[in-house]
Amino acid sequence: MHEYYVYIMASKRHGTLYIGMTNDLVRRVCQHRNDLIEGFTKRYGVHLLVHYEQTTDVAAAIWREKRLKKWNRAWKIELIETQNPEWHDLYPELVS
């Protein structure tokens, strides 16, 4: 069974946000953190994993990513702060 992740990364608390979807969260976040992916996260220094959701349904993951991208900023911040009020970088927990 495959796992898929929808994730939110930030440049800092209440900073620039990026929403993505992947089937390998550790690899993808590592790529973002080390600026190995050209584009938005590299340009704006978006390196902190602040929220993620897991599913086994790829269609659900794609739908959720598209939906979150349409949310207004306040809703995204509320989503992050519901589970991660201090905006801790969740990446170290993934790799430990």
From TrEMBL:
Domain of life: Bacteria
Domain GIY-YIG: start-end pairs: 2-78
One Pfam family matching this protein: GIY-YIG
Entry keyword set: Endonuclease, Hydrolase, Nuclease
Listed GO MF terms: endonuclease activity
SUPFAM superfamilies, sorted: GIY-YIG endonuclease (SSF82771)
InterPro entries: GIY-YIG_endonuc, GIY-YIG_endonuc_sf, UPF0213_domain
Gene3D superfamilies assigned to the protein according to its UniProt record, in alphabetical order: GIY-YIG endonuclease
Range of residues in the leader sequence: none
Family: Belongs to the UPF0213 family.
Protein name listed in UniProt: Putative endonuclease containing a URI domain
Lineage summary: Bacteria, Bacillati, Chloroflexota, Dehalococcoidia, Dehalococcoidales
